[in-house]
Amino acid sequence: MEITPKIQEQLNQLNDKFDAINQNTSTHLEGLLWAKPITYWDYIQTDALLNLQIQRTTLPDEMVFVMYHQVNELLFKMILWEMNQLCHTEQPTTAYFTEKLGRISRYFDMLTTSFDIMKDGMEPEQYLKFRNTLTPASGFQSAQYRLIEFSSTDLINLIDNRFRATIDRNTPYEHAFEHLYWQAAGKDYHTGEKSYLILEFERKYKKVFLDWMEEYNTINLWRKFKQLPEIDQKNPELVAAMRHYDVTVNITWVMGHFNAAKKYIESVPGNHEATGGSDWKKYMLPKYQKRIFFPELWTKEELDNWGE
After folding, report:
1. Do 289 and 158 meet the contact criterion of CB atoms below 8 Å apart?
2. Are 86 and 92 a contacting pair, CB within 8 Å?
3. Angle at 65 between CA 60 and CA 67, to 5 degrees
4. 177 and 213 in contact (C-beta within 8 Å)?
5. From the centroid of its chain, how far is CA 82?
6. Considering Cα of 264, then 109, then 88, then 172, what sign does the dihedral take?
7. Domains of the chain by range and CATH?
8. What residues have CB less than 8 Å from 267, skipping those under 6 apart?
9. pLDDT digit string (tens) for 134-179?
10. Which H helix or E strand runs over 205?
11. What is the pLDDT of residues 54-68, one digit of tens each?
12. In terms of Cα–Cα distance, which of 113, 137, 112 is closest to 62?
């Protein structure tokens, strides 16, 4: 092989790269002799990925349920990947902010349009059988979804609507955590007793949540929006994109989940709780909790009628 000027330049760049980390270029080049070519299945880890679907029953439609939720978690990870980059950019440009917001919204648009897979993709009879093997687990326990919420907005907007007046930016994170809106799904505020659903969730993730709440307190998506030039904050297209994300996450996505759950849980007569034992209707319906990421971008009438 002829050592062309281009190849020589590439070799020089490799040498500079390895010198910078105190490595021997020759050793790395020799290693290439024995490295096998990359394949699609090795790069994507297809075999490992396709072996993560473990059913607890012999009912075929449980596989749909498992895979659908795993796809959700992968999309949540994609959203957090973009948010992490945007929120940790010290002074994002409007173009950069808009690009990242577009990616985040597209991932959530994909999530919201996917609910027909679960709503119409399982036989209710099968679901009502295999769901009994899932208790007390619940989709409520998706930690990534909570991290997305913390990354999107000021913490006060995630506090239970009944307690927001008693909490401000000086409130200890531990106290704020106890009054997050989703605590209402399994906490008796008269006795203070928590359900097993929340106790296990907190045992696994509470420290992660408290650290994330503090880290994103001043760098969340809303705070990054407020760093943009004032003229750009009033740009109709950008405001519409922010409002779209707000509605998509806090109404469209939630109602899609609610309608899917309602179809199966209420498919037979009787009082059927969610698998985690939560008051799923009051927890999920937007009109009860008024989960709104960017309240400053909505009129009073829109806020009052949120989720109606």
Report:
1. no
2. yes
3. 100
4. yes
5. 11
6. negative
7. 5-35 (no CATH), 60-304 (1.20.58)
8. 124, 127, 128
9. 988 888 899 999 999 999 999 999 998 889 999 988 899 999 999 9
10. helix 196-215
11. 999 999 999 999 999
12. 137
